[in-house]
Amino acid sequence: MKQGGPQRARSAAAKQQRERAILDAAHSLGTEHSVREVTLTDIAAAVGMHKSAMLRYFETREQIFLMLTAEGWQEWSAALRARLGDLSDGAPEAVAAVVARSLVARPFFCDLLAQAPLNLERNVSLDSAHAFKKVALAEVASMAAVLHELLGITERQATDVIATATSMAGALWQMAAPGTRLRALYETHPELAHALVDVEPQLTRILTALLKGMCAGQSPDASGRGH
Fold first, then answer.
1. Residue 89 in this model has a pLDDT that exceeds 50
2. 141-147, long-range: CB within 8 Å, 24+ apart, which pairs?
């Protein structure tokens, strides 16, 4: 008797299509809600599969979101490098604003940035964690090279800028709690106004201060430019 519902992917191409459908469903659910609220059952339902069938394609829900985090790193890196390349002014303020704006424009990625070290990396195989780290570190190196050339800071400093930007974006996004009842609580109770976080300006201020300090420590002879 013919069974209803999605059948197991038999070919490599079909398997890739099924994996992509699962990733896209997780992306959609994580964008609509928050990453930590989306379960494997939710993702399975979105693609019309039983939860146990999902394990043929991904080891855990965390692996699904970790793969999406890796894709987020690649997409953000390409966009940021292009935007930095368009800058006519390499002033710390301008660079900080571009970096902050590029992250805030990607709320799902900001959510993933917070979740990855807390639980995503900790609940996958070492092979999966290694594959993710290779992607993320390659993109960090690519962005750091652009910042090194643009600002004259060392590559180590440029790497620290990316690490600070992404870690703070993830943390501030969680603190801002957009679209949640907690955010509504902050907004409707004046005595809690100090808890309201506006991510982009705060992240811009942090990165501006960091970059100014780094640039101030670079002599014109060492950096090839004065700031």
1. yes
2. 142/77, 142/81, 143/77, 143/80, 143/81, 146/80, 146/81, 146/84, 146/85, 147/84, 147/95
